[in-house]
Amino acid sequence: MIPRPRPERFRLRRTMMFMNAQKPGLIKDAYIYGCDSIMLDLEDAVAENQKDAARFSLYHALKTIDYGDTEVIVRINGLDTPHWQEDIRVCVAGGADGIRIAKCESAQDVKTVEAAVEAAEEEFGVEKGRTLLMAALESPKGILNAYEICSASERMFGVAISGGDFRKCMQTTPQPDGVDMLFARGQMLLAARAAGIQCFDTVFTNLDDQAGFEAEVLQNKAMGFDGKSLINPKQIRFVHQVFAPTEKEIIQAEKILRAYREQSVAGVGVFTVDGKMIDIAFIPGAERTLRLARACGRYEGDLV
Amino acid sequence: MEILKPAMAGTLESSDAQVTVEPGSDGIQLTLSSSVMNQYGRQIKATVLETLKRLEVTNAQVTVVDKGALDCTLKARVECAVFRSCGQSQANIPWGGAVR
Amino acid sequence: MINKVGRDIPDALLTHGREVYQGKNYMDGKYIQKASPRTRRWEKPVDTKVVGSLVQALKQCGAKDGMTFSFHHHLRDGDYVVNQVMAAAIEELGLKDLTIAATSLGSAHDPIADYIEQGKVIGIQTSGIRGRMGEVVSAGKLKTPAIIRSHGGRPRAIEAGEVHIDIAFIAAPTSDPMGNCRGIGGKSNCGSMGYAMSDAKYADHVVVVTDCLVPFPNMPASVEAIDVDAVVVVDSIGNPKKIASAAARISQNPRDLMMAENVAKVIASTPYFKEGFSFQTGVGGPSLAANLFLEQYMDEQNIKMGWAIGGICGPMVELLKKGKVGKVIDVQDFDLDAVNSINQTPNHFEMSASQYANPANKGAFVNSLDFVVLAALEIDTGFNVNVLTGSDGVLRGAPGGHPDTAAGSKCCIIVTPLVRGRMATVCEHVVTVTTPGDCVDVLVTDYGIAVNPLRPDLIQCLDRAGIPHVTIEELKDKAYSLVGRPDDLEWEDQVVAVLEARDGTILDVVRKIKPYDPNKAEETK
């Protein structure tokens, strides 16, 4: 039995890699590729008649395998299926860090899952509130209700768009410039930021189109996403590269934090760094930059 | 648990194991084949028997075709096959109880 | 007697001056008396040495019971010749007590297992042994222990007279009527014929077997007519699809790629990575993929590879054509890109197995190698590598050039996943030592890198480059934590195979395995 520490609601999640929970060879050590989170999938990757087998595999994987610092999230089956309640029981009993709610369309969906999670925590003697939630928005309705979904629960750490289903609903296909989902991504980002939670982009499924993948990741970063869902380990490196802060950003963040600590000791709230006015509102961003830099191996200092 | 009907779980892919349980009357009859028999045959046999014991299966014919599965996979396949044979694999699994 | 790698070698094997393994370079500077074959004079001019059948060739060469026949393995899993010759000798001529001395044997030779079981074949000398033959030998059915040698150890043993070849059979994609052979120009092309060369020079009789007779003279010849007694034309010497794969593609497996990238990182961190460096890599997934990442480092630092050797396949030919490697010297070809390039692309040359790897000659290429990247079935905490026996104790591999390149190179990198299925690749004790730990420098796995403590200089290189590494014990512990500690294999006393070190000393023996039977009542342990 590998005891996992209490999950952190806000942590680095640049990359979330999907893994079929039913495939023993895959789930045993997916963490070696260095993604921030792995997403063990009970939903689309698992055939309808193997949902039960996948849960047994998942339970023992969660209990036996040492995933180290890698976050372990489970994608459960939709609320319109007969599977989601047992999915939640096994996630909570096994000690998954978080649950991804598939096809989420309303705050009520989040609350429904939350109630089942709470019941399972009670049933299995798991610390109340331990199991985190995130929602996948896969329909126009989900996107339109993004803000109420994002703010539906204290357990919610993030929201993601699921491109495959969403594009079908919208009668479109992936476009090189991302125009097919530009508005949806934007709306979801707004909602997530307004609710103070993280926001993740969908998978890029054409593994042979590296240029297309890279363009999409660059756009994700430019739009302000926290990270991206992935289907193959070979996609991890580029995302980490793109989401890594630049040398300039790191130096700037260090200066801000250093100055803030010095000034706050002296009781000063507003000060300047390189001629730019800085106050406490800059601090979380600077801290985030340095934490990211540390995760990328670019920062070894002690400010965070 | 009582094995009511034949049931199977798992695949013949590398790192997996295919477990079949059938009703039996004379204790546990285990037929085991494994791609790692010489090094892990004893451990596989012990894991399978322990798992059956925890599920309180006392009479069954059990066939395990192991393709190098880890212990956690072996347990999962045995449990799934047993719960399927009783028609109870879909809900209310005793996670952390008999399944652990 | 316990040897330098801790293996107990039965005294009964230590006759005729045979010694146990004493460490790397133990034989350096010693003298050997080379053997010479007894060969027939072909003084009277003839137009052709073509004979009607294998049986006729066998008769002409005085084939009789107890002889040693040799073969090369350039036709790999597509080879028909070993089976054809042995069938002619045993089934048509009724010969028995034969020994097969092959450069390697594979799953193409499953029928030979029957001859072993019938007692017609009583000796096997080879680098590789797999498939059914591996199973019957492991089960103790071969009358004498198989002798396993590396690609360099074999020509050494032949030249020293430890293997005396009565008749060498040379499978040849093309031959002229006098016996000048080449590996290209026919319908079953294999490219280099490097492994056949010593056989032709040191055998009493040489029979060429071809499926494509070409006009005299077939030049430049890999095996020359001056050594050939007979030429036999058969319908087919092998299955071209299995002789050379279409094109060795670089693995897309993310695990392989991750390991390959780390291999390239390690290489680039050492002082040997400079203009003109030399390199050999295996053709396994991560080994071959190392080419790709190495090229990136070469471009970045604007350096070129001086030369590459080994079994060659497409990606290396590609580097040659791009001008990123000066010369490719080739003992064997694995894919059609390499087959079609040898002796065609400028600076792509053929070499013999002796020139490649023989530790007893005066200039084997392996001794000038900077880097070699190799795979392993198992590697233990003493960095000893096993590429011969599965972790279930059954023969299913080949030392090949592994021990030769490891011993000769300045930096030998083993790349392997930590576990395969439930088998721990990094383990406490390998089943069989095929490459001694004192020849192995770095281990790259999917769970981390370990450097042999015998190489503090390389540890420094990695540290300077900021490449994280751990001890090999940590990797072994991680492996066992994943798959469980394997039970010790159980053996009978009977030795089924003797593993010769490349210098001719005895490195290890393989005994008959006692399989575990789950239905037998458990003995209390």
Q: What is the number of helices of chain A?
A: 12
Radius of gyration over C-alpha positions of chain A, nearest whole angstrom: 20 Å
Largest sheet of chain A: 8 strands, parallel, barrel
Strand content of chain A: 15-25%
How many beta-strand elements of chain B? 4
Give the N-to-C terminal Cα separation of chain B: 16 Å
The name CATH uses for the topology of chain B is: Ribosomal Protein S5, domain 2
**Major sheet strand order of chain B:** 1-2-4-3
Strand order of the largest sheet of chain A: 1-2-3-4-5-6-7-8
CATH architecture of chain B: 2-Layer Sandwich
Give the chain pair forming the largest contact, with residue counts: A-B, 25 and 27 residues
Describe this structure in words.
Chain A is of the alpha/beta class and 304 residues long. Chain A has helices at 24-27, 51-64, 84-94, 107-124, 140-144, 146-150, 163-169, 182-195, 210-223, 236-243, 247-265, 283-295; strands at residues 15-20, 37-41, 71-75, 98-101, 132-137, 156-161, 198-201, 227-230, 271-273, 276-278. The two termini of chain A are 31 Å apart. Chain A has 12 helices and 10 strands. Chain A has an 8-stranded parallel β-barrel, surrounded by 4 helices. In chain A, strands 9-10 form a two-stranded antiparallel ribbon. Chain A is globular, with a radius of gyration of 20 Å. By secondary structure, chain B is α+β, with helices and mostly antiparallel strands. Chain B has one domain (7-85): Ribosomal Protein S5, domain 2, CATH 3.30.230.10. Chain B contains 2 helices and 4 strands. A 4-stranded mixed sheet of chain B has the order 1-2-4-3. In chain B, helix 1 (37-54) links the parallel strand 3 and strand 4. The longest helix of chain B has 18 residues, at 37-54. The model of chain C has no long low-confidence stretch (mean pLDDT 95). In chain C, the strands form 5 sheets. Chain C has a 10-stranded mixed sheet with strand order 1-10-9-6-2-3-4-5-24-25. The longest helix of chain C has 16 residues, at 254-269. By secondary structure, chain C is of the alpha/beta class. The radius of gyration of chain C is 23 Å and the shape is globular. The interface between A and B is medium-sized, with 25 and 27 residues.
List the main descriptive attributes of the protein structure presented here.
heterotrimer; A: 304 residues; alpha/beta; eight-stranded parallel beta barrel; two-stranded antiparallel sheet; 43% helix; C: 525 residues; ten-stranded mixed β-sheet; 15 helices; 25 strands
